[in-house]
């Protein structure tokens, strides 16, 4: 898959392999925490220590719903963009993302990576490992998925600069 | 002749300064964190990278210090980008 800025207003993803298309289409569903407490804790981390009780209460009441809405809205933008992914059998896929949606993509890919990392409880060491594993357990494949989404994030950041 | 009223001098206490602290997170990309610091604080790429590297190598960086209200605003912005950010009293 190649990712590049197309003119001023869009980002083009081309030569998308079928497996890449599948992983891309999974992004919105990965972002559903399914109520997993580790993933929820990471997405909505505490903004202060427990001595700031009033601030934390206000945060939970007023800020957290706004953040939840922001994350959901980003996810919906990505979901709508992905519906335009063209990938006919035997041909590589192509997707044009409006540059204005770049932030939503970065946010959603980040959500996906954070949720997967939390759910599978990856250590810092594992997340910074770049070796290809000798065998592929489900955990190894999830790590590859996290790194695949990271690579897309990097390219989108480049394309947005 | 109108009497001149002299307003009493009001002392404005600026109060304790507050730090906005960003904590290390192995998932967030270095390039992404740098981009977020540039966007949220308007930092140059060099300054944003310095803070990002401090987060990466030291585990945390005080990315901004100032009024409580502004610190809360920045923490909220950083959480919107999914960074691990907290506010704390400056020493």
Question: Any overview of this molecule?
Answer:
The complex is a heterodimer of chains A (161) and B (91). Chain A has 161 residues and is mostly helical. Chain A has one domain (25-84, 101-160). Helices cover 59% and strands 11% of the residues of chain A. Chain A has helices spanning 18-30, 37-43, 53-82, 102-119, 124-127, 138-160, and strands spanning 2-6, 10-16, 93-98. Chain A has a 3-stranded antiparallel β-sheet. In chain A, a hairpin with a 3-residue loop joins strand 1 (2-6) and strand 2. In chain A, helix 2 (37-43) crosses helix 4 (102-119) and helix 3 packs across helix 4. The model of chain A has no long low-confidence stretch (mean pLDDT 92). Chain B has a single domain, classed as 2-Layer Sandwich (Ribosomal Protein L30, Chain: A), CATH 3.30.1390.10. Chain B is 43% helix and 21% strand. Chain B contains 3 helices and 3 strands; from the N terminus they run βααβαβ. Chain B has helices at 30-41, 45-58, 68-80, and strands spanning 18-23, 60-66, 84-89. A 3-stranded antiparallel β-sheet of chain B has the order 2-1-3. The chains are: A mainly alpha (161), B alpha+beta (91). Chains A and B meet through helix 3, helix 4 and helix 6 of A and helix 1, helix 3 and strand 3 of B.
SS element count, helices of chain B: 3
End-to-end C-alpha gap of chain B: 53 Å
Spatial strand order of the main sheet of chain A: 1-2-3
CATH fold descriptor of chain B:
Ribosomal Protein L30, Chain: A
Helix content of chain A: 55-70%
Please, what is the average pLDDT of chain B?
89
Strand order of the largest sheet of chain B: 2-1-3
How many domains in all of chain B?
Answer: 1
Largest interface pair = A-B, 28 and 19 residues
Uncertain regions of chain B: pLDDT < 50 for 5+ in a row?
A: none
**Structural domain count of chain A:** 1
């Amino acid at each position: 898959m190649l990712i590049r800025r197309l003119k001023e207003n869009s980002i083009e993803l081309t030569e998308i392999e079928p497996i890449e298309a599948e992983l891309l289409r999974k992004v919105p569903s990965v972002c559903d925490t399914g109520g997993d407490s580790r993933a929820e804790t990471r997405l909505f981390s505490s903004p202060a220590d427990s001595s700031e009780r009033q601030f934390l209460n206000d945060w939970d009441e007023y800020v957290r719903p706004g953040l939840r809405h922001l994350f959901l809205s980003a996810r919906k933008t990505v979901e709508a963009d992905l519906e335009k992914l063209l990938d006919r059998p035997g041909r590589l896929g192509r997707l044009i993302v409006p540059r204005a949606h770049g932030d939503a993509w970065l946010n959603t890919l980040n959500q996906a990576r954070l949720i997967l990392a939390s759910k599978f409880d990856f250590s810092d060491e594992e997340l910074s490992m770049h070796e290809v594993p000798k065998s592929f357990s489900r955990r190894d494949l999830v790590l590859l998925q996290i790194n695949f989404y990271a690579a897309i994030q990097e390219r989108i950041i480049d394309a947005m600069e | 002749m109108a009497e001149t009223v002299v307003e009493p001098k009001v002392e404005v206490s600026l109060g304790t300064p507050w730090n906005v602290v960003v904590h290390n997170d192995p998932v967030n990309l270095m390039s992404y964190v740098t981009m977020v610091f540039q966007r949220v604080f308007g930092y140059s790429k060099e300054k944003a990278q310095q803070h990002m590297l401090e987060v990466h190598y030291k585990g945390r960086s005080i990315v901004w210090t100032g009024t409580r209200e502004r610190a809360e605003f920045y923490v909220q912005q950083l959480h919107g980008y999914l960074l691990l950010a907290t506010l704390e009293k400056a020493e």
